[in-house]
């Protein structure tokens, strides 16, 4: 059979974990060898956001998502340290919001498993038995992950028409500023990482009036409006 012709039982989608971007591996063998492209294992410092965006803009794109982003609290030598001005929870939030605003079909996993499989088993960071099961959603502001769904599916924006708009950022700053805009630039969603004080958006509709609203990343809901 030709590459890409095989199927999984019960119609399960085909995807893989790869050292970086699946575009650099299986896509070169056959653009349709997978049903979902992915990034994983590397790029947890933010580089994986750019890899997602690259695959979003392929001529024959597939859904793409981040299988293995930042692990809060993990101090292993191979794991990137959090960036200045950000704590572990904010690093994980940055990766998740950045992924969905740059073409990611799913926000991926960020806590839960990583608290158990990462921090809890690291010899330099012992955790009492059973603590991840009892307090997993209270560590690293993990419960705030639930607000991402409402942010993306907010009735005031149509996420389906938004596309990554890094070219509309005056200075992307290593993926720490994220933006997705509608083709007509009438609406958009963005994310400014903790520790960043400004975000200049360029190449919008001249003389148009825009309303800027801030999303409460920990508690959900829109606040402070600026026109």
Features:
227 residues; alpha+beta; three-stranded mixed beta sheet; three-stranded antiparallel beta sheet; globular
Uncertain parts: none
The gyration radius over C-alpha positions equals 19 Å
Straight-line distance between termini: 58 Å
User: What is the overall pLDDT average?
Assistant: 84
Main β-sheet, in a few words?
A: 3 strands, mixed
- Report the portion of residues in β strands: 5-15%
Number of strands: 8
Strand order of the largest sheet: 1-2-3
Would you tell me the structural class of the helices and strands? Answer: alpha+beta
Principal-axis shape: globular
The helical percent reads 10-25%
Number of helices: 6
Total number of distinct structural domains? 1
Q: What is the helix/strand order? A: EHEHEHHHHEEEEE
Give a written overview of the molecule.
The chain has helices at residues 26-29, 47-56, 88-100, 113-117, 131-135, 146-152, and strands spanning 20-21, 37-40, 64-66, 163-164, 177-181, 188-192, 212-215, 222-226. It is α+β, with helices and mostly antiparallel strands. The protein has one domain (9-226). A hairpin with a 6-residue loop joins β5 and β6.
Give the arrangement of secondary structure elements.
Layout: E1 20-21, H1 26-29, E2 37-40, H2 47-56, E3 64-66, H3 88-100, H4 113-117, H5 131-135, H6 146-152, E4 163-164, E5 177-181, E6 188-192, E7 212-215, E8 222-226
Parallel strand pairs: 2-3
Antiparallel strand pairs: 1-2, 4-5, 5-6, 7-8
